[in-house]
Amino acid sequence: MKSEEGTKQEKGEVVMTTKVQKWGNSLAVRIPSQIAEQLQIRQGSEMEIVVANGAITFRPKKEKPALDELLAKVTPENRHNEIDLGVEGNELI
């Protein structure tokens, strides 16, 4: 599969032309390496496919941060004080 040559700038966007190819029972579009690098897309990256107004848009699916990444962002400045929720009731255990 080979991308068609054709790159142009349009309203601050990069527009490239490529061909749709058969891949098993599906169709596939190759992502040129320079675009993949720019968007940090790698083999195995999840993509969202959006169909709206007669157009298809592909965008990288945002990865959920790991717990250790979230905890690394906690600082004394952005922590809230402990909240007193009162005495426990008569919950059944």
From TrEMBL:
Gene Ontology MF terms in the entry: DNA binding; toxin sequestering activity
Entry keyword set: DNA-binding
Cited InterPro entries: Antitox_PemI-like, SpoVT-AbrB_dom, SpoVT-AbrB_sf
Classification via Gene3D superfamilies: 2.10.260.10
Keyword DNA-binding applies: yes
SUPFAM superfamilies registered for this protein in UniProt: AbrB/MazE/MraZ-like
A Pfam family matched in the record: MazE_antitoxin
Keyword Signal part of the UniProt annotation: no
Region forming the signal peptide: none
Domain SpoVT-AbrB: 21-66
Protein name in UniProt: AbrB/MazE/SpoVT family DNA-binding domain-containing protein
Species this protein is from: Caldalkalibacillus thermarum (strain TA2.A1)
Native organism taxonomy: Bacteria, Bacillati, Bacillota, Bacilli, Bacillales
